[in-house]
Amino acid sequence: MESVVTFRISPYIALNSRIKPRFRVRLQSLGGDPDLEVLSSDSIAVSAASCSGDWEKNRAPIHGGTGEKEKGGAVIDGVNVRLKSRVERKRVKDVVSKDLEVLWDDGYGNKTVKDYLDGSNEMIKPDGGPPRWFCPVDCGQPLQDSPILLFLPGMDGVGLGLILHHKALGKVFEVQCLHIPVYDRTPFEGLVKFVEETVRLEHASSPNKPIYIVGDSFGGCLALAVAARNPKIDLVVILSNPATSFGRSHLQPILPILEGLPDGLHNALPYLLNLVIGNPLKMAIVDIEYRLPPRLQIEQVARNLIAFLHSFSTVAIIVPKDTLLWKLKLLKSAAAYANSRLHAVKAEVLLLVSGKDYVLPSRDEAQRLKSSLQNCTVRYFKDNGHIMLMEDGINLLTIIKGTSKYRRSRRVDFVSHFLPPSMSEVKRASDEVAGFEDLVPARKLGDWNLKLVSVNVFCSRSKFYSRRKSYLMDTKGLAWLRRSLLLTAGSAVFSTLDDGKIVKGLAGVPNEGPVLLIGYHMLMGNEIYSLVAEFLTQKKIRIRGVAHPDVFSGKFDDPSNEFSLHDWMKVMGAVPVTANNLFKLLSTKSHVLLYPGGTREALHLKGEEYKLFWPDQPEFVRMAARFGATIVPFGTVGEDDIQEQVLDYHDLMKIPIVNDYVRDTIRKATPVRDESKGEVASQEVFMPVVLPKIPGRFYFLFGKPIETKGMKEMLQEKGKANELYLQIKSEVERSIAYLLEKRKEDPYRNIIDRTIYRALHSPSREGAEIQSYFLQEMRPPQQQRPETLQRIIAPFLMWAMAVANLATSGHNHNASVASQRP
């Protein structure tokens, strides 16, 4: 019989003799002996106290990979190993939760680069040991059936490169980090075999689970090498600025210089490397709360920068001169090894690259790797440096979720594998998504630039790209519009109780699922963010919306490969629109958002505002009745208060070259309703060109809930199902008509009026005022719109905002022109 014993030892073990260490041990029989079982890390406890005491009786030592199963336990190399009883195993299992709560705390922003440097200072003390795995304490206990994630560090080898992400990743992964001691001289192939052994052991113990490998810089080469040598193992490889392009790196010429560099100058090298490797400002603002006043933000950033630069002197200890020379040579061999085996990589690869990586040509390398690897997805972060995983704006778990890479089995399940959005993700989405587009590129047409703008409150970059960049609007000049639109998220939301009474808020929507929300899809889906946000804040309910399959196929991903709206839709819970997914969502008692009008309704033509384009057949009624779901019809208005449609599909088809692009895009799109008839099945739809307005507000009215419990047999009859279907459709139309009429009486419909009123009164009073307008009978004309202070000041405020915008635009234009002068 042959056995393997693997120790996962925390590198902090030798730092404090007063702490009683606990080891994680995995035993696996390779000889097929049934008496020696594969034991999970949760079923073994190791006590280091027995290392200094006498060996107890009834315990057989395991030497050279052999051992015996004993009643009392076993001693492995002098360490007391106690197998947990069934009761203890059950207690551990009970602690493990099966799901995350909505708006859970992912810990993002609680750790900074200073914590990394402080931790590295403790871990670099030489202990003479080999490379090893450790599990950070911050990771905590993962969810049940979570896959394993192996982190392979960069040149530093410390293994704390994910310190900003430990808490979030530790919730949904079994995180293990590789630590390579400073004075370790294991060659690259030795490191490959070490990681490969762990991968194969994990695969043997859980063959149906994927194994995640996150490689940072040098670790990226190591990850690709392991993936190339194990093509039959289900691997998800995540690369952060991989060092496969080291041959074209700026570090190549400094190798001979470093060899002759005096030790005194070497101590200053870390400060120079800091300016090249990362963005100090991005690292310093990780834990900054953006909603603080500017003065407090600046003070906190200054404190972080001072502490960060002071702690960075640790790098001189982490990477001494001889170690740095060894690491650079190791990096050279790693890049050559990985590049020679790219063709053998069968794993699923997610490539994260930076736009300001001054160490490696990462963006060019991303294009090469994408064409060389069989299954590679790229995400580009233009404002980040080489060590992006320690910089602000990068949440690794969010990226994994947004690219649909998180799964617990061989195939992703958008329902059972879904992770609810965290609080930091909701905040980030509100800042990055709920605003106008920044970039408006153009396509050159002869000597003319055809400039198309797709300015949208909640839409990604669905526009034309070209090699030459041109902008229709100044990005800085639109900043105030972006921030203003965030205020429109404070929508006016009403619902209907069972007795027919309309109340403010979502009290009329059932808390318990399954619930099917059926409504009108506004132009370009502008209402989605506000709708999801209202349910999260008021009820802490996650809405699962069904979206077009092309959102998930990657067919129409942003050509710049940036993290886009499609990614955020997946983070917030969107699933592909299929009968199977709807079946799963209703069977799990979810709140499902469904738009029968689909793309045809969201990309309607000019003059078709608030018109429903529903199919003739009742697609969802029978499915809802099968699970006894509650159907809640709702109407929403406000698209005409935030933007004006300038060019629709028919207008675009009249423009040369543009119409070819439109036809090609429609041809590539996946048809969803092949069997449907009428307008809803029309494929003649395309992203319109719109211009922004001074924002108004969105209005939602959820109708009286319709129970389908006990109606399964009755709704099998086509006539009955169609009758209920038409009733739901008429309720949506009635809600839209009601809101269109009632919003005329809203004194706070305009954002200027609303902002002034909020400055003078409390938000609760505003809620009471709008409730009185919407929930009471219409008042006489002279009482509908009183001349209040905000109505008088509004024109002056509009004028001031326009002047400020023009001044800002002019300043930026002059600065841009000045920067282009020779």
TrEMBL record:
Give the record's keywords alphabetically. Acyltransferase, Transferase
Q: Which GO terms describe its molecular function?
A: diacylglycerol O-acyltransferase activity
Keyword Transferase recorded: yes
Under the heading CDD domains, the entry gives: LPLAT_MGAT-like (cd07987)
Q: GO BP, one example?
A: triglyceride biosynthetic process
Pfam families (alphabetical): DAGAT, Hydrolase_4
Q: Which InterPro entries match?
A: AB_hydrolase_fold (IPR029058), DAGAT (IPR007130), Hydrolase_4 (IPR022742)
Domain Serine aminopeptidase S33, chain residue ranges per copy: 196-391
The membrane spanning regions, by residue number, are none
Cellular component GO terms held in the UniProt record: membrane
Q: Which family does it belong to?
A: Belongs to the diacylglycerol acyltransferase family.
The entry's protein name is Serine aminopeptidase S33 domain-containing protein
Species assigned in the record: Dovyalis caffra
